[in-house]
């Protein structure tokens, strides 16, 4: 046996452990367990057809070889993606640090104050630079953020009587091409009519509910958005501005002009291009729209001692909680990238950002002058970093390509290009030489960059930004390193203990899967670079598509969606396109079981479908009779069923094949939510159960870390009849023959993160993947057994087994005055992050250990749960001054001179022996959610402001 095989590193329980665990659950072999768990008729008959597994060492050599196939040419294409400099201190201490990248979404605020603070810094930075009142903690990319802005303005139009019912939205023709494509995708299904035109020619007297401008435009020209917004405001037309984040250092904040929404990407703040992503988009708006905001907002509140504490704001938290009333489906966003961008702001501060922006602007202006001297006509009269040259594009392209430089050629008579943070005087001279050669002229050599100001006077920046202390303190590496560490210490991540979040699959994110993300030749490829330069990427992306197609039992895969929820939307849009191709335009009913994740109904509504909810049985299964009845009732208009498998209740429903058949018989397609794919890989698959399309959360099943709430990758895999409709992209040919318009900004979504899943599959191979699924099921059933007698498990399969996760009931403890939240908070004192709270059943915990957790860790967790159960038995409803209600206990409480609790300090902080060796201290006491929602503050406001609130 190869003791160094990756599977043995990825999977937690050793062979002996597995035997003991099987013994505990009363079985001899793993195969018996699988037999008792997964219905026979959906089991795969043969092994997955994948390459032999590589060792970690072999994989790193392999991925290094492939990286060499990428040609990192000097790239000035712009269009929302620019070369940038990731400060090494951020790369090493955040991107390469499991303390940051393995954390979960900060729902458990008391053990997430570090990333919450970093995200609050992000929001502050966005609020300052855009001049808006509130901002969220990131969205997926600039183009989807633009679509979210349009949706928000559409949703709020009804509040303005004059605009109620108006459905026209103006799009400046200077919008980025990928954003236009996204706007089309999202406008159509909900009945928005897009009108694309020139800003200068816009007729404000026409009936529009909103408009979107690009600032500066895609060609680099800065227009007078001040005047546009002011006229629009008079006409009560709401305006969204897509603004280049770095240019805002020099351009006046759109908020100062009265913009309603400002969106964009923060990629330029130190995040590698990564062939398209992941990067954090930002979204800022007015206070008045705070309840309509997509994504998550971090807000300030207080803890049980009245001290400042942070948490995700507003009871709604995310739009999708509103299910079919939601206007956005965003769940996973781009937390890790937002954290990195915020640290770029912290490190450079306002002075550093001005230095960087001025340098870029001055170089651009110097270059413009040199090109004019060479006789070129530069069209932009006001610009930040992008020039537009009228010339024979072909001539320039020929020389530039020969000299390994990428410019952008929008048509045969135009060349545009953008200068960036990495551009040196040498690069400027190199560019001049290219244009000189294309014009058959002697080149001009620049030795000095001139000071310049080529920005339209009315939009030059006057307002201050980043005045808070945090942006003016940590400017040396030592200071920033310690600041990052001080935040990291407040957060519990997978490098401390198991995070057994049901439905979220927090498994190992192996270092060898992560290493290549830092490499230059993976980071520095522009998503619109010629395909010939991206051969390394195309090789792995194609192979990953093939691997996922094989694993799901389908015909093809699109990697474009950059979260699970985007995958859902993409899948439904593909289904819609399929129906329409058969002249079934009327098919718009989407059946969704009541237990579905909130993103399901939210996505269906975004796709223009009508949600019909179907019932569950007492055993947690889909009520097949109810489903049949509803499918038949709606058979003329049935579009799809959305079903999670195994169900969100943690059960492999044996009726699944019957269910998918009912839908097909009534003319519908079956969408399978693949969040629970970790219970299927190698043993069964969506194709096999009769689904037509599924999304996968590569950040759950396929080892991409959660990053504290993103990035994610949510590819869709489809059956043969849906392949023609896989999503396209305006500048790069991807997708099916009758491709739907874009689902995310980049042709391959978050390509850089895809390396992780590729590595995961490459190193596990068919056997390792299948073994992982089996052990995930073993670990879950072992926990179920160990907790028996203390916690009841709701729902199990026909033979009494759980799938890869289980729901434990905490409602009976209400008799003792204990809520499920109290258990979640008490687990922190034991060094554990709570399992999923109250999804899909209120008052329960959903536990998913994954295959990566060892028996020892699982035993510690079970010991903690059982010990908490004893504590519950000892408390009463009448007396809330107890271990659970007061949890979590901070170091400050334990070491304070006063101790007024009716239990010992030891019982509070060190309830079990193992805690002594590895104590994790929550940094604040229990946070007060309601208080913060009544007094919403979502930037680093000075403490005084907070005290007055
Ligand atoms: C996580 C999850 C989703 C949403 O996926 P994101 O990547 O967060 O957008 C959808 N459905 C289920 C069942 C999930 O667990």
From TrEMBL:
Ranges for domain Glycine cleavage system P-protein N-terminal: 9-435, 458-729
Gene3D superfamilies cross-referenced by the UniProt entry: Aspartate Aminotransferase, domain 1 (3.90.1150.10), Type I PLP-dependent aspartate aminotransferase-like (Major domain) (3.40.640.10)
Class in the EC hierarchy, top level: oxidoreductase
GO cellular component, one term: cytosol
Cofactor(s) demanded: pyridoxal 5'-phosphate
CDD domains: GDC-P (cd00613)
Domain Glycine dehydrogenase C-terminal: 772-889
Pfam families: GcvP2_C, GDC-P
Modification type N6-(pyridoxal phosphate)lysine: residues: 700
Keywords: Oxidoreductase, Pyridoxal phosphate
Catalysed reaction, written as an equation: N(6)-[(R)-lipoyl]-L-lysyl-[glycine-cleavage complex H protein] + glycine + H(+) = N(6)-[(R)-S(8)-aminomethyldihydrolipoyl]-L-lysyl-[glycine-cleavage complex H protein] + CO2
Catalytic activity, EC: 1.4.4.2
Coiled-coil region(s): none
GO biological process, one term: glycine decarboxylation via glycine cleavage system
Subunit structure: The glycine cleavage system is composed of four proteins: P, T, L and H.
HAMAP family per record: GcvP
Assigned protein family: Belongs to the GcvP family.
Protein function: The glycine cleavage system catalyzes the degradation of glycine. The P protein binds the alpha-amino group of glycine through its pyridoxal phosphate cofactor; CO(2) is released and the remaining methylamine moiety is then transferred to the lipoamide cofactor of the H protein.
NCBIfam families named in the record: gcvP (TIGR00461), PRK04366.1 (NF003346)
Protein name per the record: Glycine dehydrogenase (decarboxylating)
């Amino acid at each position: 046996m190869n003791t160094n095989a990756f599977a043995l590193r990825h999977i937690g329980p050793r062979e002996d452990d597995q035997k003991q665990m099987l013994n505990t659950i009363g079985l001899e072999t793993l195969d018996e367990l699988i037999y008792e768990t997964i219905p026979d008729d959906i089991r795969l008959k043969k092994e997955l057809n994948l390459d032999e597994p590589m060792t970690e060492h072999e994989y790193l050599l392999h991925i290094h070889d492939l990286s060499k196939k990428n040609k990192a040419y000097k790239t000035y294409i712009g269009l929302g993606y620019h070369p940038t400099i990731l400060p090494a201190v951020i790369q090493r201490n955040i991107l390469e640090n499991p303390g940051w990248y393995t954390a979960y979404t900060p729902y458990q605020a008391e053990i997430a104050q570090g990333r919450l603070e970093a995200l609050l810094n992000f929001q502050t930075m966005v609020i300052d630079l855009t001049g808006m009142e509130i901002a969220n903690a990131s969205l997926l990319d600039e183009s989807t953020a633009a679509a979210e802005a349009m949706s928000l303005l559409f949703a709020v139009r009804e509040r303005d009587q004059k605009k109620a019912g108006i459905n026209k939205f103006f799009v400046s023709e200077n919008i980025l091409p990928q954003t236009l494509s996204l706007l089309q995708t999202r406008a159509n299904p909900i009945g928005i009519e897009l009108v694309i035109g020139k800003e200068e020619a816009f007729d404000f007297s026409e009936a529009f509910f909103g408009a979107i401008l690009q600032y500066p435009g895609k060609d680099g020209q800065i227009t007078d958005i001040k005047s546009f917004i002011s006229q629009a405001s008079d006409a009560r037309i709401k305006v969204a501005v897509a603004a280049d984040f770095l240019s805002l250092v020099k351009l006046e904040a759109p908020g100062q002009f009265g913009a309603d929404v400002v969106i964009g990407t923060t990629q330029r703040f130190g995040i590698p291009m990564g062939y398209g992503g992941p990067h954090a988009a930002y979204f800022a708006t007015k206070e008045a729209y705070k309840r309509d905001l997509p994504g998550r907002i971090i807000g300030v509140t207080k803890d049980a001692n009245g001290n400042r504490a942070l948490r995700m704001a507003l009871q709604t938290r995310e739009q999708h909680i509103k299910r079919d009333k939601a206007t956005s489906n965003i769940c996973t966003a781009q937390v890790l990238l937002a954290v990195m961008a915020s640290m770029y702001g912290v490190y450079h501060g306002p002075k550093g950002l001005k230095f960087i922006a001025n340098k870029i602007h001055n170089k651009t202006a110097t270059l413009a002058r040199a090109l004019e001297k060479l006789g070129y006509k530069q069209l932009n009269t006001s610009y930040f970093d992008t020039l537009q040259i009228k010339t024979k594009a072909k001539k320039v392209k020929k020389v530039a390509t020969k000299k390994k430089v990428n410019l952008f050629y929008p048509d045969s008579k135009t060349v545009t290009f953008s200068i960036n943070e990495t551009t040196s005087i040498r690069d400027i001279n190199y560019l001049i030489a290219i244009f000189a050669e294309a014009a058959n002229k002697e080149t001009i050599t620049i030795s000095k960059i001139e000071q310049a100001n080529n920005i339209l006077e009315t939009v030059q920046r006057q307002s201050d930004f980043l005045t808070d202390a945090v942006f003016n303190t940590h400017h040396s590496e030592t200071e920033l390193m310690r600041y990052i560490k001080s935040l990291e210490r407040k957060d519990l991540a997978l490098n401390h203990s198991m995070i057994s979040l049901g439905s979220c699959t927090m498994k190992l994110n192996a270092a060898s899967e992560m290493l290549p993300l830092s490499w230059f030749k993976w980071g520095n490829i522009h998503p619109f670079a010629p395909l010939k330069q991206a051969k390394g990427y195309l090789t792995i992306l194609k192979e990953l598509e093939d691997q996922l197609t094989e694993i799901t039992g389908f015909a093809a895969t699109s990697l474009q969606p950059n979260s699970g929820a985007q995958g859902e939307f993409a899948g439904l849009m593909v289904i819609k396109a399929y129906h329409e191709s058969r002249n079934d335009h009327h098919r718009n009913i989407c059946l969704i079981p009541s237990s579905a994740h909130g993103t399901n109904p939210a996505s269906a509504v975004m796709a223009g479908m009508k949600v019909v909810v179907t019932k569950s049985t007492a055993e947690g299964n889909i009520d097949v009779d109810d489903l049949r009845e509803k499918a038949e009732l709606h058979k003329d208009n049935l579009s799809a069923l959305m079903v999670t498998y195994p169900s969100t209740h943690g059960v492999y429903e044996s009726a699944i094949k019957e269910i998918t058949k009912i839908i097909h018989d009534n003319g519908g397609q079956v969408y399978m939510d693949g969040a629970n794919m970790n219970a299927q890989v190698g043993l069964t698959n969506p194709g096999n159960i009769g689904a037509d399309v599924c999304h996968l959360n590569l950040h759950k099943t396929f080892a991409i870390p959660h990053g504290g709430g993103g990035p994610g990758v949510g590819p869709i895999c489809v059956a043969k009849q849906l392949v023609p409709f896989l999503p396209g992209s305006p500048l790069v040919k991807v997708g099916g023959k009758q491709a739907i318009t874009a689902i995310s900004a980049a042709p391959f979504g978050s390509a850089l993160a895809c390396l992780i899943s590729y590595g995961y599959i490459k190193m596990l191979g068919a056997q390792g993947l299948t073994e992982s699924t089996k052990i995930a099921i073993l670990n879950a059933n072992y926990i179920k057994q160990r907790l028996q007698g203390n916690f009841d498990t709701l729902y199990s399969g026909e033979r009494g087994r759980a799938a890869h996760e289980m729901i434990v009931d905490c409602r009976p403890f209400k008799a003792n005055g204990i809520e499920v939240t109290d258990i979640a908070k008490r687990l922190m004192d034991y060094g554990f992050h709570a399992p999923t709270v109250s999804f899909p059943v209120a008052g329960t915990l959903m536990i998913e250990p994954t295959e990566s957790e060892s028996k020892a860790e699982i035993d510690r967790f079970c010991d903690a749960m059982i010990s908490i159960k004893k504590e519950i038995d000892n408390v009463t409803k009448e007396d809330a001054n107890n271990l659970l209600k007061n949890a979590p206990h901070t170091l400050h409480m334990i070491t304070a001179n006063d101790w007024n609790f009716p239990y010992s300090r030891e019982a509070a902080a060190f309830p079990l022996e193992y805690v002594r060796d590895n104590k994790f201290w929550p940094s604040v006491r229990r946070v007060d959610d309601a208080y913060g929602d009544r007094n919403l503050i979502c930037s680093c406001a000075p403490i005084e402001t907070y005290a007055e609130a």
